């Protein structure tokens, strides 16, 4: 595993408990070794992006954080505690939003599901749903069914439902992969703002290198067969980021090169 | 037994173990409780009646009667329905013009037609075949119409771009594309035909498997009734499985799926 | 051709069919005993409904059919839910149930008569018994085939098994359940009519059977039309139920 250039590890990493810690993880599924010797840590409040070729276990990695999968060896920790199973303060946004929303509930109804699961008092729910709809820019669309919403809007509903959990960790599995370029850009900026406002730790899986650099504080580049960490790239770009200016910034372009070269090597 | 055979048996375990256990416990329960009823029979008695009916050929006679009526009625009703349905599918305008008439006449249940055919033909095979034909006409009409209407419009565009004549568009593109769904329509229609034939036999016609079932029931021979029921279930299952296999053979490779 | 002209054209086609029917009977090509004229048929229909007992007979048939259907649906949905939600029950029971699938609904009529006898009250039970099967298998399927992604969402939110069955299982199963209820209603109509024919219980089935036996073709055709109306009402009823229970499907093409 390399550090690119001489980027130091994050200054406060040693002192604070990492939000997510992978400790020498090995995962075997169906007889195949998907991940082996994977170790890394994400600091609280950090926006970490994961990139890598297919087969490197990017998606499986998120399941290990939710606790729906257990490693064959090693330990996954959330805020210092070993992961035992799903927890309500970990939320995950899926790529196939169409399958992750209840088709028989309206947008508001889908968000309400999170409150029902958390036993939030009934009289609070309506207002909190309205606030969330506003946050994701869907005011007035609350009583529409998913089938009546565009792809981007459906993904926003899913994000709103995850935010309703007030998660400490927000996992995202290529959430914008199925959307068109313009919607993707809008949602990138929105999610960056939402994460910053909520203070949650974000772990964002994507195959889009530009997206990873644009959104992340750090980019973890994995290699495949078996999946393990190859490089950590610090993204020292200023926030808030801008679709035009940030992407033209010389530092952005340099990081692109670095990441691109890495991907070439590991393919 | 070979290893493969054992695997197959184990894989289908619920399919044969559960019915066997069920029948076994029913047998034991009935013997132990000494229950007597005109409507119940020991599974062993049913098996005996089934064997007897096979041995003296009665079961084959009745089956042949039912199948005879179906083989007469399905081609007539099905062919009419198919031709009309394909035509309506090819011409959406004609489909719209016919829509009210179809909606008015199609809710008439085939069972309502039983006394009518009895009036016209008396009892026997022709009466039953006409009812089967009536029952097959509507589903074949509607399903083949939908099959043709449901041909991917992109394909028709391609045909037009290639400059194919209208007739060639139909024979080279529309009909082959609609064929799997038409075959499914035929399969469903045959299922309906069996149901309607047996229903007619139960209701009125002293002919075929349905008649065997109801007369055994009314003459207080429940073991014969259940035996024929089991035979009917097997027949229906074989018919459906055979048609699905045929669908696979005909369309599996080229079209990739079974509707 | 415009929408409006197609609509009127459709009506004209229907009217011309009736006209053709009238002409054929008037010309004497077909004996009135096999094909009465539309005028006499519809006159008889009108008189029977307003002054005769046709309305009562139709109501009797419909009542039997609907009660049997409600019983069958209730039993089928409860049973189907229990089996569908339990992977073990599904594994062991579904293959056996599939073996029973090809049996026509009407074949259970002789069994019902043999078991319960020919008394009037029993017909309802027989109808319900026969109509359970068409709704059972689709219900089992509906409760079992929940998208794995939704299961993950439920697990992540920490939703318990009962809440899962009600909030996820039931709505997910509704399309299949309603489709099964549609098949069940069709089966109910068949069993009711055939049951009335065999047991001579008061209703449309017995009426048209007797009309045929006494060669009263006008009464026969009238009865057939009424049964067609019952079939159409069934369709409309189910349409309402579908739209009421599944509002989220309205927007789909």
Helix content of chain A: 25-40%
Unreliably modeled segments of chain A: 1-14
Please state the CA-atom Rg of chain A, rounded to the nearest Å: 18 Å
Count of alpha and pi helical runs of chain A: 9
Can you tell me the CATH superfamily of chain C?
MetI-like
Mind telling me the CATH superfamily name of the largest domain in chain A?
A: P-loop containing nucleotide triphosphate hydrolases
Beta content of chain C? under 5%
Q: Got a strand count of chain C?
A: 0
Radius of gyration of chain C: 23 Å
> What CATH architecture label of the largest domain in chain A applies?
3-Layer(aba) Sandwich
Overall number of structural domains of chain A: 2
Largest sheet of chain A: 7 strands, mixed
Low-pLDDT segments, ≥5 res of chain C: none
Supply the CATH class of chain C. Answer: Mainly Alpha
What do you see in this structure?
The complex is a heterotrimer of chains A (267), B (259) and C (253). The longest helix of chain A is centred in the C-terminal third of the chain and has 18 residues, at 181-198. Chain A is globular, with a radius of gyration of 18 Å. Chain A is of the alpha/beta class and 267 residues long. In chain A, a hairpin with a 4-residue loop joins strand 10 and strand 11. The two termini of chain A are 16 Å apart. Helices cover 37% and strands 24% of the residues of chain A. Chain B has one domain: Orthogonal Bundle (MetI-like fold). Chain B is built from eleven helices and no strands. Chain B has helices at 3-11, 13-33, 43-55, 58-90, 92-105, 110-121, 125-149, 153-161, 166-203, 208-218, 222-255. The longest helix of chain C is centred in the last third of the chain and has 39 residues, at 161-199. Chains in contact: A-C, B-C. At the B-C interface, helix 2, helix 5, helix 6, helix 9 and helix 10 of B face helix 1, helix 4, helix 5, helix 8 and helix 9 of C.
Element layout with pairings:
The complex is a heterotrimer of chains A (267), B (259) and C (253).
Chain A lengths: L1 E2 L16 E10 L2 E11 L4 E5 L6 H9 L6 E6 L2 E2 L7 E4 L3 H4 L6 H11 L4 H14 L15 H14 L4 E5 L7 H18 L2 E5 L3 H7 L2 E6 L4 E7 L10 H4 L1 H17 L1
Parallel strand pairs in A: 1-11, 4-9, 4-10, 7-8, 8-9
Antiparallel strand pairs in A: 2-3, 2-5, 5-6, 10-11
Chain B lengths: L2 H9 L1 H21 L9 H13 L2 H33 L1 H14 L4 H12 L3 H25 L3 H9 L4 H38 L4 H11 L3 H34 L4
Helix pairs in contact in B: 3-11, 4-5, 4-7, 4-9, 4-10, 6-7, 7-9, 8-9, 9-10, 9-11, 10-11
Chain C lengths: L2 H25 L10 H13 L3 H32 L1 H14 L7 H9 L3 H25 L3 H10 L3 H39 L4 H10 L3 H29 L8
